[in-house]
Design a protein that fits this description.
alpha/beta; about 240 residues; 2 domains; about 30% strand
């Protein structure tokens, strides 16, 4: 049985979970702009509680985003540091998928989940997930859009799938823009945030199935301003040449 560490810092919540010998060791801290101060001590706490050292890990899963730019960079940097130092496999999981799985854990009979995160500037990160026999299946790629554009996309993406659809981040979507089609019942869920235990439940089977990757692949999924950052091993951008 592999030992997997999961961490998420994509929102104001910072959480860490470790699966060892059938027990999940967990820490959670809710405070804006505190991840750089609390994440490493939280990792040390769960390792100590489990009687393990970083070298005993087999893999690290992290919330790759979308979400807070600074939070995502911290999670990716810590994941890379652990993985490079101890030759561990890594796996990034969409923060929106983690939100959807957390929502479905609360209401298991739902048909699907709509997830939104505040991206500022009048936009939201979002995606939709349908419930299938194998678990949650994304209905599309994680996106970045205005609430009005998201509402239109929801109608096209989810219409014809009757049942209860959970809406995470309902405060970001005016009720007049909530999706509506025959047989659809939208249920808003309050106070749903990414949880490392849910991330662990999603990622551990994938890591154990061989889906882990090398440390260098632990990079954030920003969705916005991708041109402003690059990996150190990426070629430098080409400067325009004068005539």
């Amino acid at each position: 049985m592999q030992v997997v560490l999961a961490l998420d810092t994509s929102t104001d919540a910072c959480s860490v979970a470790l699966d060892h010998d059938g027990r999940v060791h967990f820490r959670h801290h809710l405070e804006a702009r505190a991840h750089n101060r609390v994440l490493l001590p939280m990792i040390e706490d769960v390792l100590t509680e489990a009687g393990l050292a970083p070298g005993d890990l087999d893999g690290v899963a992290f919330g790759r985003g979308p979400g807070s730019f600074t939070g995502l960079r911290i999670a990716a940097a810590v994941t890379q540091g652990l993985a490079w130092a101890h030759e561990l496999q890594v796996l990034g999981v969409s923060s929106l998928e983690v939100l959807a799985a957390e929502a479905l854990r609360r209401v298991p009979a739902a048909m699907g989940v709509i997830t939104l995160l505040d991206a500022r500037m009048g936009e939201c990160y979002w995606n939709t997930f349908a419930v299938a026999a194998s678990g949650l299946e994304p209905c599309g790629e994680d996106g970045l859009d205005t609430p009005a554009a998201i509402s239109a996309a929801l109608q096209a993406r989810c219409a014809g799938k009757p049942g209860v659809w959970l809406l995470v981040g309902a405060e970001l979507l005016p009720k007049s823009l909530w999706p509506a089609w025959q047989g659809c019942d939208v249920m808003a869920l309050a106070e749903v945030m990414p949880d490392a235990r849910t991330l662990l439940a999603l990622a551990a089977p994938r890591l154990r199935a061989g889906e882990g990757r090398a440390a260098a692949t632990a990079v954030p999924a920003y969705l916005r301003d991708a041109s402003r950052w690059r990996r150190l091993d990426d070629p430098p951008p080409q400067r325009p040449t004068g005539e």
